[in-house]
Amino acid sequence: MNLVRTAMLLAFMTALFMGVGYMIGGSGGMMIAFLIAAAMNLFSYWNSDKMVLRMYNAVEVDERTAPEYYRIVQGLAANAGLPMPRVYLIENPQPNAFATGRNPQNAAVAATTGLLHRLTAEEVAGVMAHELAHVQNRDTLTMTITATLAGAISMLGNFAFFFGGNRDNNNPLGFIGVLIAMIVAPFAAMLVQMAISRTREYSADRRGAEICGNPMWLASALAKIANSAHQVPNMDAERNPATAHMFIINPLNGQNMDNLFSTHPNTENRIAALQAIANEMGYRAAPRAEAPAGPWGGSRRPGPWDNARKGPWS
């Protein structure tokens, strides 16, 4: 159902983009819009991961430089049947993480130092399993396409502002078409982008719970990350708000309503869904409040992080 819904939203986004081109310049404008979209999508397909990682000054790590973090991802990738992704660390106090890449063979996952400082090993495993679920579901490519189309629609809206008043621009709808291109179309594109993001988060939560083996690890992590997002600003994300949908929790604010203006589902709704999954899998439906912060002391269940050493965040 989520796949069908996402496909329908992407089709609407594409149709909206072509429609904006038509409203600005008729059939010629629609063709130009199509060519621009094709070029932008081709560039994004090959370079989106590099662009996003560079925005956040992410540093690639390995088993030598960040052994415990790396081995968690390594073990989870094996559980999911995925190729080992590139692993990155971001120097940022806000606990958060994201995945990027055009396909599982060219994927990368990134976590902030804040995530590794504030969460237990189990919770980190839950978060990284969620990100690997995005990779496995190819959500990273879907979100890149929607972000590119949304940006292109906004760009066409700006074109309408500058060129819409020209009587020779072949605009078939006159001033009404210009107004729609300037205001309504970019707003609609934003709503579609957010709807796709929220749809994919629930799917990634479920699959991530299956990959790590315990839904409550992710539920506990989401509660901690959402609470910290209220308190710890992520200035890199503030400068690049178009990337907010990529993170496991919205890095820009701590919205509490699951509505059309949120890039992520309500955290409490996600936790409730994970608790239901935990019941299905036979786990206790309450996060372990006593779990120590990482990295990473205290007793814990065996996992791919066992016998590892502290990483560069300690």
TrEMBL record:
Compartments annotated for it: namely: Cell membrane
Q: Name one GO cellular component term.
A: plasma membrane
Xref: HAMAP family = Pept_M48_protease_HtpX (MF_00188)
Report the family membership.
Belongs to the peptidase M48B family.
Q: Which membrane topology describes this protein?
A: Multi-pass membrane protein
Cofactor note from UniProt? Binds 1 zinc ion per subunit.
Q: Where does Zn(2+) bind?
A: 130, 134, 201
Q: What is its main location?
A: membrane
Protein name in UniProt: Protease HtpX homolog
Q: Which cofactor does it need?
A: Zn(2+)
**Active site positions, chain numbering:** 131
Tell me which EC number(s) this protein carries.
3.4.24.-
Q: Where is this region: Disordered?
A: 288-314
Show the GO MF annotations. Answer: metalloendopeptidase activity; zinc ion binding
Regions crossing the membrane: 7-24, 30-46, 141-163, 175-196
GO BP: proteolysis
InterPro entries named among the record's database cross-references: HtpX_protease, Pept_M48_protease_HtpX, Peptidase_M48
Name the UniProt key words of this record, in alphabetical order. Cell membrane, Hydrolase, Membrane, Metal-binding, Metalloprotease, Protease, Transmembrane, Transmembrane helix, Zinc
In this chain, composition skew of type Low complexity spans: 288-305
Keyword Protease annotated: yes
